[in-house]
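Q: Here's a chain of 384 amino acids. Please give me its 3D structure as C-alpha cells.
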Amino acid sequence: MLHILVVIPLFNHSRTIEEVVQGCRACHGDILVVDDGSTDLAENFKQVIGVHVLRHSANHGKGAALMSAAQYARSNGFTHIITIDADMQHRPEDIPKFKAAIQDDPKALVIGKRDFENSSAPKASRFGREFSNFWFRVQTGMQAGDAQSGFRAYPLFIFERLSLKQTRYDFEIEVLVKAAWAGVPIKIIDIPVYYQTQGKRISHFKLFMDNLRLTHLNTKLTFRSFLPWPHKQIAGNVKPVIFSILKPVASIRHFLSNRLTPYEIAMSAAVGVFLGTLPLVAVHSLAILMAAGFFRLNKIIALGASQFCMPPVVPALCIEVGYFFTHQGHFLTEISFETLGHQFLDRFVEWCLGGIILAPVLGALAFAAFYMVSWAIAAAPDHK
C-alpha cells in the first residue's frame, strides 16, 4: 500500500512557509517541514505551523534536509515523499498530479518540469536548467525535462539503496543521475511556476560555491558515465553481462534477457562498428563511450562490437579503398617498408578516406546482422 509524505525543506523562508504549509494541507494530510537551521523563525514556530517539524541545529544543506526527511519517512512507514520548495515558486495545488504519477508507477522518480514560457523566471534559472539538462543527457542518455526542479516525488527505496554523498543543492543532481543509472524510471509532469519580484525573492543559492560544487559533481559523474562497467540496478532484476566477440550469439541472448530490444542491440553494435572503422587513433573507446551515452545506447555492446574493427583487417581494408579512389582504380599490392614506412602519411590519408567511405557501410551491415540475429533469438519459442 502506498503511503505518501509531503516534505518541505526550509531555510530562512519565514515569510512564505505558513502559506505553503496551508496549501499543502488542503491537498494532503501528511506534511513534514525540515528546518535546516533557520534563523528567522519565531520561537513558537512549531506550535503555529501545525505540522510535524524536524530541525537541524545548523544549516547543513538541502540534500541533508531531504536525507533527514527520507529517514523520518522510512521510520514512520511511508513509501514515498513529495518534495516542494518553501519559497512559493511551486503550487501546492499540483500535489495531486504527483500522487497520480506515483499511483501510475510506484517505482518512478517524478520530476515537475517548470513552465518557463509563461513565467517571469530569471535568466540564471533558465540557463541553469538547460545546463543541467545537457549534462544529465550526456551522463545518462535520457531527458530530464527539468534537472533542477525541486518539486519531485521519490520512492524511498532510492535513498536506501543508492550511495548518495552530496548534502547541498548538488544533491538533487546526484540522486537524479544515480537513480537513472540504477534503472529507476524517470517521469516528467508539467507544472506552472511563480517567481516573486527581484526585491522580494529569497534565494540561498551561492553563485560561486554552489556552482563549484555542481561543476565538481558533474565532472565525476561524467567520467563515471564513460566507463563501460554496468551500474547496480535497484528497480528490477537486471543481470550485468559482458559482450564477447568470441561468443556473439550467447552475448546477444544475455542482453535480450536483460530487457534490451533487438533494435537497441543493433543500434549499439552499429555505433561501435561505425566509430571503430574510423581512424580515431588513441580515442576510439572514448568516442564510442561518449556516443553511446549521448544516444542512450548500450556501451558494453558498442565497445564489444568495435573489436571487430581491430587491426589488421579493417584498417587494411580502409587503406585499400582509399588507395583505390586516389590512384585511379588501382589497389595497393606492394607491402614493404617503403609503402608502409616512408609513405606512412600517404597511407594514413588513404586510411582516413577509406574509413569515411566504409564506416557507414560496415555500420549498416553490423546493424542488419545484429538485428536479424537478435530478432531470431527473441522470436525463438525457448527464449524467455
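Q: Can you summarize the key feature?
A: Strands lie at 4-10, 31-36, 52-56, 80-83, 109-114, 152-155, 186-191.
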